[in-house]
Write a structure and sequence with these properties.
The complex is a heterodimer of chains A (243) and B (217). Chain A has 243 residues and is of the alpha/beta class. Chain A is 39% helix and 25% strand. Chain A has helices spanning 40-47, 71-78, 94-104, 110-123, 139-152, 169-184, 196-202, 220-225, 230-240; strands at residues 2-11, 14-24, 29-33, 55-60, 63-64, 79-82, 157-161, 188-192, 205-210, 213-219. In chain A, strands 6-7-8-3-9-10 form a 6-stranded mixed sheet, with helices on both faces. In chain A, strands 2-1-4-5 form a 4-stranded antiparallel sheet, covered by helices on one side. In chain A, strand 9 (205-210) and strand 10 form a beta hairpin. In chain A, helix 3 crosses helix 4 and helix 3 (94-104) packs parallel to helix 5. The longest helix of chain A is centred in the C-terminal third of the chain and has 16 residues, at 169-184. The radius of gyration of chain A is 18 Å and the shape is globular. Chain B is mainly α and 217 residues long. In chain B, helix 1 packs across helix 4 (87-112), helix 4 (87-112) crosses helix 6 and helix 5 (116-124) packs antiparallel against helix 6. Chain B is built from 8 helices and no strands. Classes of the chains: A alpha/beta (243), B mainly alpha (217). Chain A binds chain B through residues 48-50, 73-74, 76-77, 80-81, 83, 85, 87-91, 100-101, 104-106, 146, 149-150, 152-153, and chain B through 115, 117-118, 120-128, 131, 135-136, 139-140.
């Protein structure tokens, strides 16, 4: 469904992606792990055109991602994104955040959009927060609103960019369980994360990225339990046993 | 003091005619400067190099020319190019253009204060540039922009007196005419000052209201 072929990307003189090739199938959950600065987030941002890439090809169901082409709007409505810092619109209520896209981009009838928006908020466990503004919500609640906002576009895939990194530890579980439910329902997901437990339990496949290249990839359990590459082993040791 | 009050009774009705023109010039140029300022600001943040550069250059040119020279140009020079404006039109146009530079910088600051992450979030749900502006950026920028906007209104009210230099009989010119024909400088200019102050006070209160509202956020 999502195809990356030899994708290169530089910021100035620094090459952050040095030929990334990967293929993500429908309903597959892929976790991208790796040290900070390794290019994980940049991959997600290239997939839905928040960043341009210099060389290679990114295709979503055959359509090439080009951030400067008109087609990017259609692609973005098919591939939603959830950010580390939620990025909700603070001047709109939780429900308004969720229905903003359906109402103004997809031109859905308001009554229908509201009804679906409320159902989505219920799905992420926030039925009672529909009329609350984001600043009054906890980080975990804001992130779940952001997931509902992404779902409201009825996307074919959702990209998660470190969705729990900005949360207090006790709030991480609520967000991860919403994501696990999505995975169980067959949503295609690409998740940049440091939550190794989530990757092990939920991901079909794990990509370990370091220095702008995919160092190792494979079924989640084999990469995380029996990493073959020295860099992967070193990274996992430091993440799992920091002391 | 008694003399002042009897002068006031005599002069206030004449000065009030000037007040009316002051209000017309102020509101007219405020509206024009707001529209132009917003246009310059949107060009500046459009992300299109040529438009942004054009807007930046234009703002610098406008900022670098004194208002009075701009007014002279519109009123005395434009007729040479076949464009004859009335004094009132020239003053509204001149002050509107001059103030569009300040308005633009204020609007731009408000727009750029909005977190980039929100703009990216808007993009990822398929919003284009204008929809992002209309639904996400501008509604939040308004709150940031309002207090300085109020101050611009006060400055513009006072600067409307520059229209007197091209024969618009607004409050300042009306005062000057009465003073030079009656020699009652003290009474007349005290009245003129009091009238400007009276018009400014509601605006000052409005700015305070905007500031309170912005701080509450």
């Amino acid at each position: 469904m999502i195809e990356l072929e030899d994708v290169h990307k530089s910021f100035g003189k620094v090459e952050v992606l040095k030929g990334i090739s990967a293929s993500i199938a429908k309903s597959e959950v892929v976790c991208i792990i790796g040290p900070s600065g390794s290019g994980k987030s940049t991959i997600l941002r290239c997939i839905n055109g928040l960043e341009s890439y210099d060389r290679g090809d990114i295709r979503i169901e055959g359509a090439r991602v080009d951030r400067n082409a008109r087609s990017i709007v259609a692609i973005r409505t098919q591939v939603s994104m959830v950010f580390q810092r939620f990025n909700l619109f603070p001047h709109r209520t939780a429900l308004e955040n969720v229905i903003e896209g359906p109402l103004y981009v997809k031109k859905a009838p308001p009554a229908e959009a509201r009804e679906r928006g409320r159902a989505l908020l219920a799905q992420v466990g926030l039925a009672d927060k529909a009329d609350v503004h984001p600043p009054q919500l906890s980080g975990g609640q804001q992130q779940r609103v952001a997931i509902a906002r992404a779902l409201a576009m009825q996307p074919k895939a959702i990209l998660f960019d470190e969705p729990t990194s900005a949360l207090d530890p006790e709030l991480v579980g609520d967000v991860l369980s919403v994501m696990r439910k999505l995975a169980d329902d067959g949503m295609t997901m690409v998740v940049v994360t440091h939550e190794m437990g989530f990757a092990r339990d939920v991901a079909d496949r794990v990509l370990f990225i370091d220095g702008g290249v995919i160092v190792e990839q494979g079924p989640a359990k084999s990469v995380l339990n029996e990493p073959k590459h020295a860099r992967t082993q070193d990274f996992l040791r430091r993440v799992l046993h920091p002391l | 003091m008694q003399k002042f009050f009897s002068d006031a009774v005599e002069f206030v009705p004449i000065l009030l005619q000037g007040v009316w023109l002051t209000i017309v010039v102020t509101i007219g140029s405020l509206a024009l400067s707001t529209v132009l300022g917003l246009l310059w600001a949107l060009l500046r943040v459009s992300g299109i190099g040529v438009l942004a550069g054009l807007s930046a250059g234009l703002i610098n040119v406008i900022r670098g020319i004194p208002i009075i020279v701009l007014l002279f140009y519109l009123y005395f020079v434009m007729p040479d190019f076949g464009i004859a404006l009335t004094a009132l039109q020239a003053s509204i146009l001149g002050l509107g253009i001059a103030y569009s530079a300040y308005q633009s910088e204020n609007f731009r600051a408000g727009i750029e204060a909005i977190d980039k992450g929100q703009i990216e979030a808007a993009q990822t749900i398929g919003m284009g540039w204008w929809l992002t502006m209309r639904r996400v950026v501008l509604p939040q920028a308004v709150k940031i922009v309002l207090p300085p906007y109020g101050n611009i209104m006060i400055m513009l009210l006072k600067d409307s007196s520059q229209a007197s230099t091209i024969t618009v009989a607004e409050l300042a010119l009306q005062g000057k005419l009465i003073a030079s024909s009656t020699f009652k400088n003290t009474s007349v200019f005290t009245l003129v000052a009091l009238m400007y102050l009276t018009m400014s006070i509601p605006l000052i209160l409005l700015v305070r209201h905007f500031e309170k509202k912005a701080n509450r956020k």
